[in-house]
Automatic annotation (TrEMBL), chains A, B, C, D:
It is found in: Cytoplasm. One of its GO terms (cellular component) is cytosol. Belongs to the DapB family. The gene is dapB. The keyword Cytoplasm applies. This is 4-hydroxy-tetrahydrodipicolinate reductase. Catalyzes the conversion of 4-hydroxy-tetrahydrodipicolinate (HTPA) to tetrahydrodipicolinate. SUPFAM superfamilies: Glyceraldehyde-3-phosphate dehydrogenase-like, C-terminal domain (SSF55347), NAD(P)-binding Rossmann-fold domains (SSF51735).
Length: 215, 215, 215, 215
C-alpha cells in the first residue's frame, strides 16, 4: 500500500517506516513540524505523533479521502470528537496502544472485573525518562476497565513500556503484567490496523476491533 | 457445623482448626497417623493431608454418610475414582487448590487460551524447601488448561506458594502470577467448600463449582 | 530473660509474645493504651508500637535501668534525641526494620552506591491497606543510602511488606527486592536485638550493629 | 580505531557494526563461515560468535599482533587455555557478559556471599527461543560466585536476556534481577573493552577489569 505518515522523523515514525518497508509498503507522503512532502496520493494516513499534529492529519485524511490510523496518546475529548466526525467519511482506527498483548489484557480485565470486585487494585507503569505524559495512555486505557483505579508512574532509564496491574486481598496477590521489548511491536500493530482500515467501511474502530475482526 | 478432620496435627490441619474455630465450628472427630478420636458424628469430614490417608477418609465419609472436602495433592487416578464413587452417596468437593485467586486465574486461562495460542508459555512455581512433590498440584492444574506447558519448580526457604505463567512472543512478555501470603487462605477456602457441601446434593464438585455457585 | 513489652495487644506485640515464649522468655511487664501491669522487674523493655508510646517506654527503661529495643517507625527528630539521651544510661537498639534481609540490602546499597551513580533509581514499596504511614520507614531507611531517591507507596490487601529498588539506564534494568512473608521475622529480629542488648554496654545501636556484632 | 570482526553477519556482529560506526570506528577486516575479507591491518579484533570460530580468531590476532576482545559463550577449558596463551603476546579481554549491570551484580554477589550463606539460592534465566545453549554463560558466570547454585533456564519468545537470583530463608525472599533491553548494551560493552585493550599491555583481562580500570 502507499501510505502517508505524520511525524515521520520521530522515534515511532522511524519504526513505522522500517516495518512498513520490510513489507514493501511505500511512503508517499510525509509530514513533521518543519517539513511536508507529498509525492503521490496515499491509500492511508498514519499519525503516531503528538496531539498538536492531529488537526492536520484529519484534514489530510479528508482531502485524500483515505482511512486514518491514529496512535497519538494524550488526546483531549475534542480531539476524539474530531476523529468521530471524520469516521463518517472514512474508516478511522484509534487506540492508545497498538500492541496485541495490551489488548488481550484489556479483554481479560473487562471479562473478569466482577471476579475482582472485592480485591484492591493498583496499576504501576514504567517508561523511559524522556516520556512526557504521565500516567501513560495505556495505563489510563487499562484503568478505565476497572473503574479508574490508582496509577503509579515511574520514569527511569530507557524502559520501552511496562504495565503491571496488582490485585490484592487479605491473603493473596495476583499480578498481571505486560512488557514491550521494543517499539517494533507498535509498528507491527499499526500495520495490522492499516491493512484492516483499507479493506473496511467508514466507521470508528479501536485496535481491539482490528484484532477481533482479524481472527 | 460439627466437623471431622483427617491430618489434624499437620500444618494445614492446624490452620483449618484455627479458621473453623474463629467461625465457631466444632471439631468432633480427629485423625492422624497415630491417633483417632471420635466424640460425635460429624456433619462433614475434611482431609488436606497425604494420599495414604485417603482410603480411611472415604470410609469415614461413608460410615457417617457425611460430605467430604478433599484438598490432598498428588492423588493418583485410582484415588480420584474412589472419590467419584463416593460422590454417588454424598457431596464430594475435591480440588488441588482452595484459593480464590488461583481459581480466578484458572478461569482466565480457559477463557483466553485461544488468544495465547501463538505465544510461548511457561509456568514457574516457587514453594518452601520442605514441599515433597514437584511440580505442585496447582501448577499441573493450571498447565492442563494450556495444553500442558513446561513447568519449572523452585524450592527455597519458606515460600508458601507462588505461581507465575509467562507468555512471550517476539516483542512482548505477559506475566500472570499468584502469591499466597499464608496458609490461612486455603483454610478459608476449605470453609467455603464445607458450607457449600453440607447444603447441596450428592455429586462430585471442584472448588470452582463452589465459587461459581456462591456468586 | 524477663521482658517488658509496650503495645502488647497490637499485631507486632502478639507476634513478639509468641516468638519470645517459643524461646522460653517471660513477659513480666505489659503496657498498652488502657492497661499497665508490672509483675516483676524486667531485664529489658521492648516497644514496637507507635510514637505516642515512646515517652513512657523511655521512662520505664530509666526506672528499671534496663536496656530498650525500639522498632517504632515514623519517629520524629526529638524522639531520636530522647533515645540518644537514654543510651547514655543503658544500651538502646533502635531500627525502623528488624529483618535480616532488609539490612543486607542496606549494606549492598551503601557499598555499591558509586557503581549506581549514573543509573536512575526509584523505590516502590507495597504494604497492607491498614498501614498508616507512607512512605514506609523501611523505604526511607533504604532511600537515605541512595541520596533520597523517589519512593512510590502502594497500599493494598494484606501485603506484609515488599520493597523494590529499581535501577535503570539506557539499556538495562536491575531490580533488588525484598519480601517479608510474615511478621514473625521482625519478632525474631527483636529477639536477636534483645539478646544483644542485655549483654553489651550502654550506647546507641542500630539493628545493623546487632547483626555485625553477632557474626 | 580500525577493527576486525569475526561473525560480522550474525546478530551480535551487526549490532557491533552499528555501535562502532556511530563512534566512527572503521571495519577493516570481516569474517564469517563463508566469507573472509581483509582491507587493512586491524588495530583490534573482536569475536562474539561461536566456539568453532575461536581458533581462527586467535590466529588472526597473532598474525596482526593486535589485541582481541572475545565475547563468545560456551567456551571449553582448552579454548580458555588458548586465550591465556595468546595473552602473553597481546591484551586479551574475555567475558561471557559485556553488560555493565551484570558485572555490578557479579561484584555484589562476591562481596556479599557470606551474608547469604544461610539462604537458599536459585538462579532463573530467561532468553529467546532460538538461544542454543542452556544454561546461559551469564547464569554460569553468576552461579560460580555463589558456589554453583541451581539454574533454571526458560526459553520463550524474543526475550533478550533476563537473569534473576532468588535468595530465600524461612520468612524472607530477596530477588536480584537484571534485564537487558537490547543487544546494544553488549555492543557498547565491546566498545569499552576494545578502547581499553588497545591502550594497555599484554595480559588476560575480564570485562570486570575493564570496568574497574575505567573508573
Amino acid at each position: 500500500m502507499k501510505y502517508g505518515l505524520v511525524g515521520f522523523s520521530g522515534k515511532m515514525g522511524k519504526e513505522i517506516i522500517e516495518v512498513f518497508s520490510e513489507y514493501c509498503h511505500q511512503l508517499v507522503a510525509k509530514f513533521d513540524r518543519t517539513h511536508r512532502e507529498v509525492q503521490e496520493k496515499p491509500d492511508i494516513i498514519l499519525d503516531f505523533s503528538s496531539p498538536e499534529a492531529l488537526k492536520e492529519t484529519v484534514e489530510l485524511s479528508k482531502k485524500f479521502l483515505c482511512p486514518a490510523v491514529i496512535g497519538t496518546t494524550n488526546l483531549k475529548e475534542q480531539d476524539i470528537s474530531m476523529l468521530n466526525e471524520l469516521s463518517a467519511l472514512v474508516p478511522v482506527v484509534y487506540s492508545s496502544n497498538f500492541s496485541v498483548g495490551i489488548n488481550v489484557i484489556k479483554n481479560i480485565l473487562e471479562s473478569f472485573k466482577l471476579e475482582f470486585s472485592e480485591w484492591d487494585i493498583e496499576i504501576i507503569e514504567f517508561h523511559h525518562r524522556k516520556k512526557k505524559d504521565a500516567p501513560s495512555g495505556t495505563a489510563l486505557f487499562l484503568s478505565e476497565s476497572l473503574g479508574n483505579v490508582p496509577i503509579h508512574s515511574i520514569r527511569a532509564g530507557g524502559i520501552f513500556g511496562d504495565h503491571k496491574i496488582l490485585f490484592a486481598n487479605e491473603g493473596e496477590v495476583i499480578e498481571l503484567s505486560h512488557r514491550a521489548m521494543s517499539r517494533k511491536i507498535f509498528a507491527l500493530g499499526a500495520l495490522k490496523a492499516a491493512e484492516f482500515a483499507i479493506s473496511t467501511k467508514a466507521s470508528f474502530y479501536t485496535f481491539r476491533d482490528v484484532l477481533s475482526k482479524k481472527r
